Amino acid sequence: MEDIKNNSWCHELDEIDRQIVIFLEKNARMPFTKIAEKLGVSERTVRIRVAQMQEDGILSLVGVVNPIKVGLNVQTFVHLSVQPNRIEEVVSQLKEMEEVRWIALTTGEYPLMLDVLTRDYDDLSDFVMNKLNKIEGVDRTNVVNVLKKMKSRFNFMR
Fold this sequence. Notes:
α2 (32-39) packs across α3. The chain is α+β, with helices and mostly antiparallel strands. The chain is elongated, with a radius of gyration of 20 Å. Mean pLDDT is 89; it is low at 1-10. It folds into 2 domains: 8-55, Arc Repressor Mutant, subunit A (Orthogonal Bundle); 67-145, 2-Layer Sandwich (Alpha-Beta Plaits), CATH 3.30.70. β2 (100-105) and β3 form a beta hairpin. The chain has a 4-stranded antiparallel sheet with strand order 2-3-1-4. It has helices at 15-26, 32-39, 43-55, 87-95, 121-130, and strands spanning 74-82, 100-105, 112-118, 138-145.
C-alpha cells in the first residue's frame, strides 16, 4: 500500500478513501478489483466508496483533454474590472462564452479572472474586441497570455 502524508485539509476522507483517490488520480481507469487487491479490501468496498465520494462531490472521474491537441493553442488569463452592481450579470454572460474555461471571483482591482482558450491570436483578438469589450458593466480588461506552462497537475492527494 502506498504511503501518504497526513493531510489535515482532507480530514473528511479516511485512509482507505485517500488511497482510493490516489490510485484513481494516477489512473482513473484502474479497475476497482486491482485497487481492492492493493488495499486488501473487497471490490464492493471500493465501488461503494467511489460512488459515495462521487455523490458527495469529492471525486469526479473525467477525461482531461489536452487543449493543444484539439487545436486550442492560446491560453490567456483575463482580469476584468466590473461595476460592482453588474458582477452577476457579467458572469452570466461570460458563462455562455465557449472560449471561457473558468471564471473566478477575486480580490483587488480586478474582481473577476477568466481562463480563456482560443485556437490562435486572431481568435483571441476577436474574443476580446467583439465579445468582452461589448459586455455592459466591464470597465477594464487586463489580458495576460500564457507563454509556457511550467507546471500543470490534477492530482491533489499525496
